[in-house]
Design a protein that fits this description.
Pfam families: QVR. By secondary structure, the protein is an alpha+beta fold. The chain has a single domain (3-151), classed as CD59 (Ribbon). 26% of the residues lie in helices and 33% in strands. The protein has two helices and eight strands, in the order H-E-E-E-E-E-E-E-E-H. The chain has helices at residues 3-23, 134-151; strands at 31-37, 54-56, 60-62, 69-71, 74-82, 88-95, 102-108, 111-120. The strands form two sheets. It has a six-stranded antiparallel sheet, with no helix packed on it. Strand 7 (102-108) and strand 8 form a beta hairpin. Helix 1 (3-23) runs antiparallel to helix 2. The longest helix has 21 residues, at 3-23. The radius of gyration is 21 Å and the shape is elongated. The two termini are 14 Å apart. 18% of the residues are buried.
């Protein structure tokens, strides 16, 4: 192999390795997942304790008028009180589309509630801090690329 071509191959390998390391584990988000109606799952309520709830890895959701499950991009938290019943509800799950952060009236399983919906876009963000900070992953990627470039 010619020296210039060998150098180009190493450069392509470095860029590919960097992209793989930065990309991480895939395209679906990890979100806490629970539903509590009037205290039925106290681990889902605020103040939230992550040890009392489960994380749904690579969360997937259905889409209207489509078959199958698709990778979610957002975590959501819904907190509301029944408009008539005054029953409290907490929902932590994932969503394909953003619901933005909003407060007001909404329906859940046919019941009218008043409350808030919050949406976030990082793993387990529907209450807990991230377990793998972006900056440490980026630092590892930069170090690997620099080492590979020195081999050149």
């Amino acid at each position: 192999m010619a020296p210039e071509r060998d150098s180009n191959m190493k450069w392509i390998l470095c860029v590919t390795a960097a992209l793989v390391l930065v990309a991480g584990k895939g395209d679906a988000i990890d979100c806490f997942s629970c539903v509590s109606a009037n205290g039925s799952d106290i681990g889902c309520h605020d103040p939230f304790n992550p040890a009392l709830s489960r994380v749904e890895k690579a969360c997937r959701q259905g889409m209207e008028n489509r078959y199958g499950l698709f990778p979610a991009s957002y975590c959501i938290k819904i907190k509301g009180e029944g408009a008539v019943s005054k029953k409290q509800i907490y929902v932590r799950t994932c969503a394909i589309d953003t619901m933005e952060n909003q407060c007001g009236e909404f329906q859940f399983e046919g019941v009218l509630y008043k409350g808030c919906i919050t949406t976030c876009k990082t793993d387990s963000c529907n209450t807990a801090p991230r377990t793998t900070p972006f900056w440490s992953s980026l630092l590892v990627t930069v170090i690997v690329v620099l080492v590979l470039l020195r081999v050149r």
